[in-house]
Amino acid sequence: IAGLCRIIEWKGVEHLSINIIIAAHKKYWMPTDSAYLPVHVGAEGKNSIGYTPDNTGENISAKNPYFCELTGLYWAWKNLKDVDYIGLCHYRRYFDIIITEENIEKLMSECDVIVPAAIHHSATLYNDKFKTMSGEDIAIFFKVLEEKFPKYYCAAVNYIMNNNKDYAYNMLICSRTCYENIMNFVFSFLFECQKYVMLSPYTNSKRIFGYFSEYLIPIYLFTHKMKVKEIPVVSMLSENQ
Asked: To pair with 61 at 20 to 30 A between CA atoms, which of 10, 79, 136, 206?
């Protein structure tokens, strides 16, 4: 895609390139800055909405009913190679700061990863959110962690069972190298879980892998003691739109 992953010159200064993909399933207002890349998630089998489809190159677009915006994260991981920074926001949710190729280096000099400002629950994350999943899915989540990804198990227990701060929406911005490492963990875990999770008959839990990932990204960050910068999220629409 011509021009999306370029490094531009501005007043003689070389800037780092960035693609913040905007996960969208319908046409909506989009930022015009070149740092943002609208991506049609779940594009497989759908009519074009004018955005970059996530069913090109290496992709899991057909899994969108279960993986939600993660099909966009996967597409960016596998197909946006020549870029310095990668991020994700939603057509209805953005970080409350203007991010451009001109200011990304300064922003990232203060942290390893930009994440949404934490949502503070009245009880632990487990009691307020995590336990709304089925008992079978909860068991699968911890069993896969314990058996296949044991180095993350303690951080998972502390984050979910003993903490009330919630880093939601699967939104983040980080370097291409950091993104590669996070996505490798997230999708290795989710594809392992696919072996055990029952996808039918489901209602809310149909989107289980998208829900799982909301916990996996913070667990990765805490396990590796990464420095995060919290930025508030601006909602453009109500949660059911």
From this structure: 136
